Amino acid sequence: MPSTSRSIAYKTLLSVEKDNAYAAPALDEEIKKAQCSSADASLATEITYGILRNLAKIREIISSAGGVKLKNIDTKARIALEIGIYQIAFLRIPAYAAVSESVELAKKFAGKHAAGFVNAVLRKTEKTAEKGTAPASAAQAAYAYSHPEWIVKRWSGAFGLEETLKICEADNEKPLFAVRANALKTTREELLRTLESGGVTAAYGKLSSGALIIRNPARELLVACFNKGLFSIQDESSQLVSLVLGAKAGEKNADICAGSGIKTGQIAELMGNTGEIHSYDISPAKLKELAVNCARLGITTVKAFALDARGIKGAPEYDNVGAGNSDSGTQQQFDDHGWRARQHESDAERHQADIVRMEAVDVFGGVNAFDQCRFRKSLGKRRLDDVAVEIRPIVQFVDQSGQFGLCRRGWTENYLRGDAD
Fold first, then answer.
1. What tens digit of pLDDT does each residue of 257-274 get?
2. Among residues 343, 321, 154, which one has the least CA distance to residue 241?
3. How many CB atoms lie within 10 A of CB 371?
4. What residues contact 267, with CB distance under 8 A and at least 6 apart?
């Protein structure tokens, strides 16, 4: 029988492949079902996200070693191969263990015939696995670092190949596990003491006053503290957006494209659970998650609206408005997102520009904060600058990035300095 950790990873990857599921919630669900140890959950997480980070390279190895086109390999057998190859080539787990586990996965989920094929391919891979030379082109870089070729070519054209290789390498690093202390229930200092008393190694974040960076998560303690509403999981750069917004107690504020309400929660905490927050999103499912998050955090001042904020007419005057971003800024945190992104500009940037125009004609009023996670000059600041030409006589644009400096980490972090996009 395959180990619990490999089975969890296998089922998660199959769900991503077959059901077009997102990896993070699918993995969480499989871990809950398995009721596994922290060690098994940790290895399952590493295998799942590691494969998604290096998917293109792993699949090229499979195609080469198997001597067949990828499309001709049964999906269930291919996922077993991906799990084996990742362990051999990237984790340096002993080959005999990696091969044995993947063969067992294939037997269980794909049948004995598939298990024989998996065994043969992995034995061949075991003998040939080695690190390649530095990529000499964007296409080679896309393969070596397992990034969509279109975006590597785009970066290479904008920054040159040498810088692009650094970007890809940084993007493949494991992201930091950051949390935000819930100011309504605890302080960052108290949360740190609570976690350290239970064996968690953590440190203060460098940019956000509420951030902790978790070094070695003890799953049981973290789950208990999370369920009590002591913290939210939020990338440190994302935490900066609400700080820039400057929300204060008693105000009426809005969160546009609120999603599951991570930033809504932070704004409410900064306001001391006073005043009122209107959260807009087109997804009713996301707003259900928002309600659950608010209840967990002890927040009672949020009203959610399932609609496109661009269609609002006669909206109440807000003191501050936070406008969200698209998934393509979160590639390093969610390794399956990059493979879902399309090459053309997403609707999200156009939506943000529309919201800037709405602010200019006093549909919302107050101060707007826009979250941008972009490398490309055609997005982010340039798009907003184009809009600013139309409305600058009405709206004052203020650069708040100086107080934080440049925050750069793969696709996930925000380029807060205006000239960096």
1. 888 999 999 999 999 999
2. 321
3. 23
4. 242, 245, 247, 253, 255, 277, 320, 322
